[in-house]
Specification:
Blueprint lengths: L6 H8 L7 E9 L14 H18 L3 E7 L15 E7 L2 H8 L2 H13 E9 L3 H4 L4
Helix pairs in contact: 2-4
Length: about 140
């Protein structure tokens, strides 16, 4: 499974036209063992991803964002159990889409991304726009 966006996905995100807050929903499946040949060799996929997260949380906060929530995925209550076997879920807020794009374009992020690649077996990253007013019946 790919763990980075393809060119069409990247372009659609960048050109979405949404200027406000974006919350990134991260669904994460870790490798049992991190990839061989790198700094993470011999560690668990979860440990390798943890090194990525430690570095990236500082980058997120430097751009006005924050980690909203991180937790273990325990049970598929509704949906296909086989296709939703995630290990962890994270919600990360950015003040706008450009803050996210700026972050992932830095050399520091690219360096941290090596740990992400070493640790993840699969992932889904969904950009979400807050709609609380809509849920409350406002237009």
């Amino acid at each position: 499974m790919p763990i980075t966006p393809n060119a069409e996905q990247f372009k659609a995100y960048a050109e979405s036209g949404n200027d406000g807050e974006v919350v990134m929903l991260n669904l994460l499946k870790f490798k049992v063992r991190a990839d061989e040949g790198g700094a993470d060799e011999g560690s668990s996929g979860s440990d390798a991803y943890g090194r990525y997260a430690d570095a990236v949380i500082r980058m997120v906060e430097a751009r006005g964002g924050k980690l909203l929530w991180l937790g273990r995925a325990d049970h598929v209550f509704i949906g296909d159990v086989d296709t939703n076997d995630w290990d962890s879920v994270a919600l990360v807020s950015y003040p706008n889409r450009q803050a996210f794009l700026d972050m992932i374009s830095t050399p520091d992020y690219q360096e941290a991304h090596e740990h992400r690649s070493a640790g993840l077996a699969d992932t889904v990253l969904i950009a979400c726009t807050p709609q609380l007013d809509r849920l409350r019946g406002s237009s």
